[in-house]
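pasting for ref
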Amino acid sequence: MQSNDDVELARLRLLEKAFEHSNEAIVITDAANCIVEVNPEFTRLTGYQAEEVIGRNPRLLASGRTPPNTYENMWRALRHDGFWQGEIWDRRADGSTYPKWLTISTVRDDAGGVENYIASFTDITERKLAAEQIFHLAHHDSLTGLVNRVALEAQMQSSFASARRDKSQVAVMLIDMDNFKQVNDTLGHHVGDQLLIEIGKRLKQCVRASDIVARLGGDEFVIIVQDIDNIMSVSGIASKVLRSLADSYRIDVHALYSTPSIGISLFPIDGDDAETLIKNADAAMYHAKAGGRNTFKFFAAAMNAAAHERLKLENALRDALGQSNLSHAPQFRLYFQPQVDIVTGRITGLEALARWIHPEFGFIPPATFIPIAEETGLIQPLGDWIFWEACRQLREFKDGGLAAMRIAINLSTQQLRHEHLPVVVRGALACYELAPSELELEITESTAMQNPAATIAILQQLDDMGIVLAIDDFGTGYSSLAYLKNLPIHRLKLDRSFVTDIDTDRDDAAICSATIVLGHNLGLDVVAEGVETEAQRDYLRKLGCDLLQGFLYSKPLPAQEIVAFVQDWNNRSSATRPPR
């Protein structure tokens, strides 16, 4: 049987092992707070050997980063409760600082006097880094690293509180990138993500460190400009953002362009809470888009009405397209505008143009609903309906006696990038018994240049089928002649903006002349859009343009009128009418 001394000795050895092998650093001080003992983990964690610290005050470990009131609260708790725990920052022997979680207990004698203080602590650097990372992820956009929607509102409320106190103003800029969806649709989300990261970097460079830059989601960003002096200073920042974001972007091998539309609301003039100010900035942003994009607009009360009107149109467009199928679209019609051969004066082609007649809103111009369709992704179902309806109508025209006529159909970016487009076109030709040469598919210059390699591959398949291919709005994009000459196209369509003043503006005349010469040198026909006067017609004839289209000949006509119009025109043109 063990004696009491043996038991006590075993107990002391056990405590010694616990002290020596603890994974927490342990420091024991006397009543005067001088170190009397440390364990091996203390040496490993701090870098101090026992002989370097014994007899010294633990303050030798202090880093200077812990606020003085933390130590005051610590000693108050030790005197009152005999226990304290919390986070402080210390310094190692090599001078590096680190956060630690410290627990201190007071050891008292039988009379209640302090005998020792026992402290244990662990390095919580990794725990703090993990917590900070979690906090950052919760409050920042994972792609761009900017403030996210969750954190934005809290920071806005803080900015507004400061502005109320200082009687200053805060500007809320909502930024939407024009045509960004086309980048994702044509080049893929990887390129789109890289573009968003670059946009975020440019936005940070445009503002002060005290301002807030956030990503709401998608291609929408918000800038909070604090403590502004006047409207002019906000305009200056908005102009700087416009210039910065409108510059070209080099993403992988692609040179990209994406301009911003910016809406601006002001605290407290346009609202006194985050939700209202963002909503009003959003209304101003849509006003900027309606004004031509790549610009900024300040909020005005009338814009709310415009924003509500746009939302109503978007919902109406969704409903209208939901009712559409290949043979029945109660709200949509196709109109057709003739294309006239400048030499013979005969109509040889028709361009199919969508018209929307809403039961409540009446006639809605394409300039109104096409941008909405593009921004919302509804351009895909709308474009599909236009394509199939145009093919169906052409079959009806042929059955009605309209021979040797070609239908020009505009393709959206989404349609062009669809991998099954050649299969769809081949199916439509078979369904309506059409010859490939009776279809002309038009793509815009900017669409062709977004991903030239992919464009060439798809157009080559259509060209191999015998489809006529045209570049629409030529001269308005960022085309490269090196790519243009490789596109398997047959026609260039000269944009109406150059035709309007061709007989009075030397620059427009020079552009038209150069385009026609370029087209002919590449073996292409050239079609001039927007011809409205005889002077324009005569000038284009002198330049050698091949086909003309515009109000001089006819406005777009509904299907039930176009057959009779074309037949009458061509009969008169062949019999008695001089070439026009």
